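Hey, can you fold this one?
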Amino acid sequence: MKKPFVYGELAENENFIDRIEDRQQLKTFLCNGVNVTIISPRRWGKSSLVKATMKEIEAEHSDTVACFIDAFRLNSEKEFYNAFASAVVNSVATTLDKGMELVRSYLKNLSAKFKLKGPFIEVELDLQQKESPMNVEELLNLPQRLAEEKGLHVIVCIDEFQKLADFPEWRGMEGMLRSVWQQQQDVTYCLYGSKRHMLMDIFTNSNKPFYRFGQTLYLQKIESQYWIDYIVKTFRETGKEISEDNAAMICRTMENHSWYVQQFSFFVWAATDTVATEEIIQRQLQAVLDTNMPVFESETDSLAASQIAMLRAVADGEQRLNSAEVVRRYSLGAPQTITRNKSVLRRLDILEKQGADLVFVDPLYKLWFKRTFC
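Sure. Predicted structure:
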């Protein structure tokens, strides 16, 4: 039996829900050579969206190839260049011999160690400079050179792009990347990640090199009806039942957050023999909260007492955080402390502004926080 409800991995095929307009918009930009930055909270399905869109593009355009780089585990400039070159070579080469030939032809000034990766023929490069310093510009132009000579359009997708800003060498890298990439005519970049404030600083700060690098897409939540239809259908296909009202309760509780709707639905499905009841849903909500508790505790342990106090106030629905009564009731501290804590909690993606209000970014964290602290 296929796994019902997918979280913790890319959602593909029947598990990829809606995003019809997002996919079309992303395809339009990328196929027409417009670089794209995707910004949204964590676990809203950015990676799944990009993967699904690239699959469609490659199916519709035989001259287009996509390469994927996950920057999450990269820790230095050298590691990034290795990952970048490996991804580009793997997107074009169909065999190990062709991959080795590409490196010898296009990266002549670098020696490379080759390693087979996974069940497929995939090259993992460990590039080393020969006698002279590594020509970074030559390496970054690899996709453009391959695109020109092979008549291709290359789309480079970099997940967790903001991780590069943690590299010791980032200040020098940032300008070089922008300078080289913006001149490439046959290569398009799709950059995305899970740290919104870092991405916003990289791409919307007029003092930074990547300012207006391309089109910025702000991902929205998937609407309830798509989720309800998907939940009801998945239960039915596995010999179980859930009413539309109870499916809607799952969506409402998780505020249509992609990861948590999938996770909560799975927990309810696993606890259901025949029909999912409201009692099962409420019981499994506590199980989901308990499952995520270690992560939430770790995130909260690093917060100052005044920051936890501010979260308590927001969880209770307070918005006038500088009013004397709210400051006294929750021990929020001096005005400068309140201002600083607002900034810190937003930078950590724990709180965000919605209109004039401060709200929790993560709906399940909010429920756990209220259960634990309120």
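The two ends are 42 Å apart (CA to CA). Let me know if you want another pass with a different chain boundary.
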